[in-house]
Recover the amino acids of this structure.
């Protein structure tokens, strides 16, 4: 079979390639307009902006051959942008025309009642089988085809599944003749997503063309109703802080308040002198990533925590780790550390976009930006403007790969002040420690949260709220909120901090630092409304596993993805 993949030049297509390889389906990349004639099956994956996708297809001379391919009746599978380009146009860029295979307009999700982008695992409802447990798939998008069956009776002819997010129902997959396309990412949706891909590739081409349906497969004819309900689940993310140990091996380590070295006593007494210990080694990054994927982690995060010392492009072992992890992890993979403009020792310059692109090519789905996001936010604030100048790492990467591919990771630290006399710039953000604070040192105190850079080594004067608002303006798709005060303490997430950030932005917020028991996860979702919770130490040390966390959450009426098989 001539299975071809269309890479329009942005977006992480490596994930799809890895998924097809895992399933044992050989494929060829479309590399010239002629390849469209050779293809007998075509998959078009993609993330990013509608305009960028159409522009890139045009520049590569692919747009017309793609149109002809679609008209030829040969089977087509579009993913995310590969679905959206099938429509007439998108409100994302009204002057850009889509392929017009499907009538209708792609529109932005309404953010008045929910975080946008819609990121996470949600159900795609094949409503003709209402008694069947819905399967969960990974979505990451801000635009969609909204589903209004009364206004659009023709939608029954092509809308195949619907999904509800907040108060809105949108079309999460379409099927029209030879065309099948999903708004979700099957290549990032674990076993359920791999099954969708596998079914499609294995179904004989004649059946996938011309709309012949196979009732027991994913291609059953749609019977739509508005029985959808918002099934977006809270995500549980396993995070690995990666660095070289003293012998130069890359290991997963874990700090206490960002100190990753074992504490040693200088004289063998109980006095702890916090120097000289070895880097804590909690395992191998790829082995742990595979283990967490199998246990049902909704996402995996790898942070290169000493990348500020070296250009990531020269850090071949880390790139090799990302490549190997991407081959065995079929949920989203975020890579952080050193995403910034860099200069190699020989003077070669690399932009942050080049660094990120290298990680995307290695198989990352998102990059996480720490220190550089702080500098970009500071520049935006000092410019007095309410939009960036397009040059920051956040903007350049979001422009090329879409904002959903950019996570800003904040490393805040508490700065204590005397509330009675404090008249500084952050007085509206002061938190007053309650008498029963889990941190004894906080009780009766007041503080604001300062951002830090270089893994907490330098504290800046910009506050966590200033940063969160600025990076949202610059185009981040998500904000990961660590806490230096809580990291590795096991005392629970910092709800004050998370509520503060959640109240500042519309993009999804990920809670991090401090998880010590399964109850902490239920607590953070209930108290702060964050979309996801990340933990490291308890998973690495095997104190609680992901299955137990999810069972506990489900028991406490928090929606989670439990079926991973
Ligand atoms: O600044 O863009 O190069 O990114 C550096 C990245 O590395 C940042 O995301 C920063 O948070 C991270 N980082 C730097 N130094 C450390 C360190 O620990 N010495 N790790 C570090 C940050 C925080 C989380 C941790 C959670 C959960 N670690 O990654 O996984 O706190 O831990 P827990 O569940 O055990 O409490 P740049």
């Amino acid at each position: 079979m001539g299975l071809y993949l269309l890479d329009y030049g942005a977006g992480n297509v490596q994930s799809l390639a890895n998924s097809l390889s895992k399933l044992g389906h050989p494929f060829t990349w479309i590399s010239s307009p002629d390849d469209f004639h050779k293809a007998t099956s075509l998959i078009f994956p993609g993330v990013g902006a509608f305009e960028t996708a159409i522009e890139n297809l045009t520049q590569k001379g692919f747009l017309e051959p793609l149109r002809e391919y679609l008209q030829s009746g040969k089977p087509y599978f579009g993913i995310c942008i590969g679905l959206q380009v099938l429509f007439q146009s998108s409100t994302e860029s009204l002057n850009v025309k889509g392929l017009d295979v499907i009538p209708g307009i792609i529109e932005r999700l309404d953010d008045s009642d929910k975080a946008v982008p819609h990121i996470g695992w949600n159900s795609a409802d094949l409503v003709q089988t209402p008694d069947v447990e819905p399967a969960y798939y990974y979505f990451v998008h801000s635009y969609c085809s909204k589903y209004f069956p009364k206004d659009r009776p023709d939608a029954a002819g092509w809308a195949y599944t619907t999904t509800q997010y907040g108060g809105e129902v949108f079309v999460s997959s379409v099927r029209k003749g030879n065309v099948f396309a999903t708004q979700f990412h099957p290549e990032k949706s674990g076993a359920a997503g791999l099954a969708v891909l596998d079914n499609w590739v294995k179904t004989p081409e004649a059946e996938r063309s011309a709309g012949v349906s196979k009732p027991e497969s994913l291609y059953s004819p749609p019977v739509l109703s508005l029985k959808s309900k918002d099934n977006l689940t809270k995500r549980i993310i396993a995070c690995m802080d990666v660095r070289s140990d003293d012998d130069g091996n890359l290991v997963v380590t874990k700090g206490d308040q960002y100190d990753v070295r074992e504490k040693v006593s200088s004289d063998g007494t109980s006095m702890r002198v916090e120097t000289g210990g070895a880097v804590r080694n909690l395992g191998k990054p790829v082995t742990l990533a595979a283990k967490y994927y199998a246990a049902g982690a909704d996402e995996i995060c790898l942070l290169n925590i000493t990348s500020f010392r070296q250009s990531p492009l020269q850090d071949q072992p880390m790139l090799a780790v990302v490549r190997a992890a991407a081959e065995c992890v079929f949920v989203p993979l975020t890579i952080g550390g050193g995403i910034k403009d860099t200069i190699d020792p020989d003077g070669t310059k690399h932009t942050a976009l080049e660094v990120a692109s290298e990680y995307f090519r290695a198989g990352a789905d998102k990059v996480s930006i720490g220190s550089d996001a702080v500098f970009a936010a500071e520049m935006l604030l000092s410019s007095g403007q309410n939009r960036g100048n397009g040059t920051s790492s956040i903007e350049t990467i979001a422009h090329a790969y879409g904002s959903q591919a950019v996570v800003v990771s904040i490393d805040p630290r508490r700065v204590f002040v005397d509330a009675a006399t404090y008249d500084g710039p952050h007085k509206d953000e002061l938190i007053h420690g309650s008498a029963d604070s889990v941190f004894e040192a906080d009780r009766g105190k007041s503080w604001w949260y300062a951002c830090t850079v270089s893994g907490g080594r330098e504290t800046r004067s910009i506050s966590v709220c200033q940063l969160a608002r600025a990076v949202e303006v610059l185009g981040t798709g998500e904000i990961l909120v660590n806490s230096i005060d809580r990291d590795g303490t096991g005392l629970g997430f910092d709800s004050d901090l998370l509520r503060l950030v959640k109240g500042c932005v519309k993009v999804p917020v990920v809670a991090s630092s401090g998880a010590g028991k399964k109850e902490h996860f239920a607590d953070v979702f209930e108290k702060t409304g964050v979309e996801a919770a990340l933990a490291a130490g308890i998973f690495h040390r095997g104190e609680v596993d992901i299955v137990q966390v999810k069972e506990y959450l489900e028991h406490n009426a928090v929606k989670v993805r439990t079926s991973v098989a």
About this structure: The CA atoms of residues 214 and 335 lie 39 Å apart. The chain has two domains: 3-211, 235-555. The domain at 235-555 is CATH 3.20.20.70 (TIM Barrel).
